[in-house]
Write a structure and sequence with these properties.
Layout lengths: L9 H5 L24 H12 L4 H8 L3 H7 L1 H23 L5 H11 L15 H7 L32
Length: about 170
């Protein structure tokens, strides 16, 4: 079982086979002949599947029924996204280890090594007691409310002087 990774120019190359989408859709044949996929069709399905094209759209581009697509291209449909993810991961790893792309290095350290934005690595052995030591301090409690009886309140007039009549 051989795994084939996509070359970077595959996407540009596969545009040619689907350029004829204006063609009349094929009618169902009942001649007893079964569908035989070509290598070019397999490559087209792999590339289109790896970039997230819906199965119904791939079938339309190949001018076949979606059931036929799923029946004859099952392996390509199942492995296309995996192949694309491997390529992206390889590219990210190359950038992260090249010492030329610090953003890729930071991303890799956070997602693959468990580093946090604070710069300290995650501790897999954090217990509830030690987790409290890593958390930020709680804010102080607000001052308690002061209750004053209404009889002790003083009303003020517009000049800012106490109003004795109140």
């Amino acid at each position: 079982m051989e795994t084939t990774l996509l070359a970077t120019n595959d996407i540009a190359d596969f545009i040619v086979p689907i350029a004829d989408l204006t063609a009349e859709p094929a009618r169902k044949k009942r001649s007893g002949r079964s569908f035989q996929p070509t290598e070019e069709q397999r490559r087209t399905v792999t590339v289109m599947g790896s970039v997230g094209v819906r199965h119904s759209d791939i079938a339309l581009a190949l001018n076949i029924d979606p059931k036929t697509l799923r029946k004859h291209f099952r392996r390509e449909l199942d492995t296309a996204a995996i192949s694309a993810n491997v390529r992206v991961t390889q590219s990210l790893f190359a950038m992260a280890t090249s010492r030329r792309n610090s953003a890729a290095s930071i991303f890799w350290a956070k997602t693959r090594c468990g580093f946090r934005s604070t710069g300290s690595p995650c501790d897999n052995d954090i217990t509830p007691k030690s987790a409290a030591a890593h958390s930020s301090p709680k804010p102080p409690d607000p001052a308690p409310a002061v209750r004053v009886p209404l009889s002790e309140l003083v009303a003020y007039n517009n000049d800012g002087e106490p109003n004795v009549e109140a």
